[in-house]
């Protein structure tokens, strides 16, 4: 059901982008559908330079598709129906639950309001700040650029209006701070944002928020430090930059793999080691109920906690004074297994049908599955079959975890003994 | 403790192979230690052509290292002590337990006897049959070749006396049947062999044996069919062979990744897709208490069963009318996580320090970790650092699971409710 809605949106978006009014060059139906899929699934893999190939109208369509895809189609459905005075009955609410990975129906309208408010405020403030960079450079068009990049960043879409993404601003502090803050906020999950807003104190935060905040902080430090260490002298990436720019670029490139998809450095220029590290970050992804993809930070955290607990001969998992039941571990195991099998199958099928550099193909498949959008250039070189494959993987990468998350959230297992903390795993 | 014993053995073996009497060409201490590590860990990765570089004495040393490494040093220690009339006390028995991944001490002497008898009978019969191939071709030297390859095959060592492994006999039925049967028997685990010998009927087999037999059969069919499908027209592998040879080669190449390490086809000639499939098989490996490596077939089976059970909303795993407790799933999760982290770290570090083809390096690391010994040629090109890395990974790949298996086997968790079936996961 949810998948069908996304599909309808992709087709409508593709048809709109196919219209002559949307593009300059030769964008066929296949390219239009690919772009639409990439936008609705907030991935950001592209076949053409978004800024050059699409007109202002086309870019607006893409921004809308990103907004709809990122915030969840259902949030908008509820809003529209409410605005029209039509009571939002159970069926729609159930779909909404599936989309946002929520179990309790009563919180839903509150949650929707939180989502919309947070999103619009963030995107508005972001656009305002970005205008200080874009307007002096591009004049009136700079306003549109600020809005587009703000929407794209908050929704972790990774679409940019320049062929080398944001590489022009590799050392620009405003871009490096505003864009990353936008996609970190968007990727950490509405639950966490709402929780911080309500609780305000660390101790009052839920287990989920604590895990997300600590996990995100750890992964950011991990990614940035490794990127700097591995690429510091690589002439294709950091080598020729000033020390200040090197630090800014390491910050940006360490944060973007989960799952923003912008880049300020040539992704194809990275060493193989950095590429592998980036792929692992892309697989982990962001937070549940967020605009990010991947197996999610909490899933990864539970995997690690379970392993550590095991080697300490503990039968339960503890984190921040809360116990996590065995059923959480089973969820995590199933989710991770399915994800790994999907990514492996994707890499396998792509490798069968295409003879490019293996690592580049594997990177592209991982990027599509995690709806990241970073590219080492393989996507642009794929034939029809390859494009179709990447489209399917992006679709599964976005809709799969949502559907799976719904399944996980509604699974009823008798809980025993411990005061249970709840973690969102989809 | 166990690791130290293996280490001592590796050093002694390395020194013996370093002696001028052991080799013809310029085998330095570094090459000798690498070969010794590869033999004791029954991996089979080599820097030089074993048949050309080492004398008969050197080859005999290698065969002995393989035999000691494969059957477990401790089996031999017990034997020697018993033969000398020295009572085998608890400490030694405990080490033996660690080596064979067994929980019950009382079965140990029985098990050791089973192991020795099974190994010698299999290797003897194997050598006899292989002599029909090697003696007509090589005369008296053929007898030694038959013995060496039989020992190497049963212990899943993958050492061959010809630079292209067994490629000369790609279509030879005797080689294709005897060698594979030897390494399948050696790799399925002594427990299963002993169980089949005692039970003789399917219904009386333990859950572990049933899982191993069904899992092994499935993985063999999977590997062979995919290899044939993917490589059928590849001129670098199957393309130029007759249909009969193609089928034999597919059989051999489908079975050898878990974790025999012989090849009848040029491993470097395989497509990327086949390479990825082979790598997954190498990671799965063979059976517990066997000469094989990897995360083990039962671990993989429990991973799949847990995922299936989860999607059926079952809280327990069932297989062949037996329930598997949650603690088994936790074991499996911890073991798989550790293994994946190790392989990923190995690939990461190798990629940092070496700039070869990524897939070839990743293949080599996976092969070393699974103590498989298949190679796409990267091992021969590595510098000192790379060789040291591969040696460490082989060592961890062999000793790690044994130590971990001991840890897993001795872990006491209160079992509840279901009649528990036991599965060996190390
Ligand atoms: K993205
Ligand atoms: K081997």
Automatic annotation (TrEMBL), chains A, B:
Signal sequence annotation: none
Cell location: Cell membrane
Source species, domain of life: Bacteria
UniProt entry keywords in alphabetical sequence: Cell membrane, Ion transport, Membrane, Potassium, Potassium transport, Transmembrane, Transmembrane helix, Transport
Transmembrane segments: 6-21, 33-54, 60-89, 110-135, 174-199, 211-229, 291-311, 332-352, 388-409
MF-aspect GO terms: potassium:chloride symporter activity
Assigned GO CC terms: plasma membrane
Membrane topology term: Multi-pass membrane protein
One of the Pfam families matching this protein, by short name: TrkH
Cited InterPro entries: Cat_transpt (IPR003445), TrkH (IPR004772)
Keyword Cell membrane: yes
PANTHER family: KTR SYSTEM POTASSIUM UPTAKE PROTEIN B, TRK SYSTEM POTASSIUM UPTAKE PROTEIN TRKG-RELATED
Protein name, per record: Ktr system potassium transporter B
């Amino acid at each position: 059901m949810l998948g069908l809605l996304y599909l309808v949106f992709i087709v409508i978006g593709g048809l709109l982008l196919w219209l002559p009014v949307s593009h300059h060059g030769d964008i066929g139906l296949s390219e239009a559908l690919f772009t639409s899929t990439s936008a609705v699934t907030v991935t950001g893999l592209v076949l053409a330079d978004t800024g050059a190939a699409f007109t202002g109208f086309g870019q607006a369509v893409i921004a809308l598709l990103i907004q709809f895809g990122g915030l969840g189609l259902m949030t908008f459905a509820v809003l529209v129906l409410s605005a029209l005075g039509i009571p939002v009955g159970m069926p729609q609410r159930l779909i909404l639950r599936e989309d946002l990975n929520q179990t309790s129906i009563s919180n839903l309208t509150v949650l929707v309001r939180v989502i919309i408010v947070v999103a619009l405020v963030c995107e508005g403030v972001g656009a305002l700040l970005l205008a200080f960079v874009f307007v002096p450079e591009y004049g009136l068009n700079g306003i549109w650029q600020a809005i587009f990049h703000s929407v794209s960043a908050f929704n972790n879409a990774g679409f940019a209006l320049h062929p080398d993404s944001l590489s022009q601003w590799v050392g620009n502090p405003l871009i490096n701070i505003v864009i990353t803050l936008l996609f970190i906020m968007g990727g950490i999950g509405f639950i966490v944002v709402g929780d911080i807003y309500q609780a305000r104190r660390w101790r009052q935060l839920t287990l989920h928020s604590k895990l997300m905040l600590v996990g995100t902080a750890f992964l950011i430090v991990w990614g940035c430090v490794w990127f700097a260490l591995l690429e510091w002298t690589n002439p294709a990436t950091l080598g020729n930059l000033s020390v200040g720019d090197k630090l800014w670029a390491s910050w940006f490139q360490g944060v973007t793999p989960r799952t923003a998809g912008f880049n300020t450095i040539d992704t194809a220029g990275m060493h193989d080691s950095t590429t592998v590290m980036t792929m692992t970050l892309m697989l982990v992804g962001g937070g549940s109920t967020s605009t990010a993809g991947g197996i999610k930070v909490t899933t990864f955290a539970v995997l690690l906690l379970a392993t550590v607990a095991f080697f300490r001969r503990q039968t339960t998992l503890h984190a921040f004074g809360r116990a996590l039941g065995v059923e959480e571990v089973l969820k995590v195991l199933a989710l991770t297994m399915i994800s790994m099998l999907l990514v492996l199958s994707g890499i396998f099928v792509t490798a069968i049908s295409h003879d490019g550099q293996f690592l580049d193909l594997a990177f592209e498949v991982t990027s599509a599955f995690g709806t990241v959008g970073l590219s080492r250039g393989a996507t642009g070189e794929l034939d029809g079959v390859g494009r179709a494959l990447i489209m399917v993987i992006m679709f599964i990468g976005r809709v799969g975890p949502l559907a799976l998350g719904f399944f996980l959230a509604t699974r009823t297992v008798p809980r025993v003994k411990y005061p249970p903390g709840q973690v969102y795993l989809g």
